[in-house]
Write a structure and sequence with these properties.
With 194 residues, the chain is mainly β. The chain folds into 2 domains: 100 residues, no CATH class; 92 residues, no CATH class. The strands form 2 sheets. Strands 4-5-1-7-9-11-17-13-16 form a 9-stranded mixed β-sheet, with no helix packed on it. It has a 9-stranded mixed β-sheet with strand order 3-6-2-8-10-12-18-14-15, with no helix packed on it. A hairpin with a 2-residue loop joins strand 14 and strand 15.
Length: 194
């Protein structure tokens, strides 16, 4: 971990539109800008919670969070309740893992080099997920339900019943690698080299 302060960024009730960026010039652990109904934001003992607890389906789509993270800390990102649109460039972050409980739609993440086996875990169904990892980093993709339009580098599957497991040829012998686990059904999933 290089002695970095470990932090967790948690959305306890999901988030509609999310952007996460890494800011090397920041002195604070994080900074957030919120549009639409404001979440309750707390920070204690390395846990940054951004809570959109007043869920309203008519206002939900108009909420968005733009969060900047300090690059001198290590971060885990956890979203409970799903995310409908999430873009992030995390290439300069020490990322310890991503966990989403609930569904995912329209997510595009640029991932940093992993330290050890780094897990991206999504418990619900997934549609339009793109994970871009650094060149030379092995990856495994496991899907619990049926899937359509899967891509892992040069491997492509049209439509298959579940469960599905794909991995790059260099995955099993690698120490630093990505492990992508999707619990539900999946459509249009890309795990590719950046």
């Amino acid at each position: 971990m290089n002695g970095r302060t470990p932090y967790r960024l948690v959305f306890p009730h999901g988030v509609a539109n999310l952007t996460v960026r890494v800011d090397p010039s920041m002195t604070a652990a994080y900074q957030g800008e919120f549009y639409g109904p404001k979440p309750r934001v707390t920070e204690a003992d390395g846990l940054v919670s951004i809570d959109y607890s007043q869920f309203n389906p008519f206002r939900w789509g108009r909420t968005s969070a733009d969060v900047r993270l300090n690059a001198s800390s290590s971060w885990a990102i956890e979203i409970r309740g799903g995310v409908s649109h999430w873009e992030s460039d995390l290439r300069n972050l020490e990322l310890t893992g991503i966990e989403v409980q609930g569904g995912v739609n329209k997510v595009d993440l640029q991932l940093p080099p992993p330290k050890g086996s780094s897990i991206v875990r999504i418990s619900g169904g997934v549609s339009h997920l793109t994970l871009r990892r650094p060149a030379g980093v092995p990856a495994r993709l496991q899907i619990g339900g049926g899937a359509s339009k899967l891509e892992l580098d040069a491997q492509y599957l049209g439509a298959v019943g579940g469960p599905v497991r794909l991995e790059t040829p260099d995955y099993s012998n690698a120490t630093d690698r990505y492990d992508v686990e999707i619990g539900g059904g999946a459509s249009q999933i890309r795990v590719i080299r950046d």
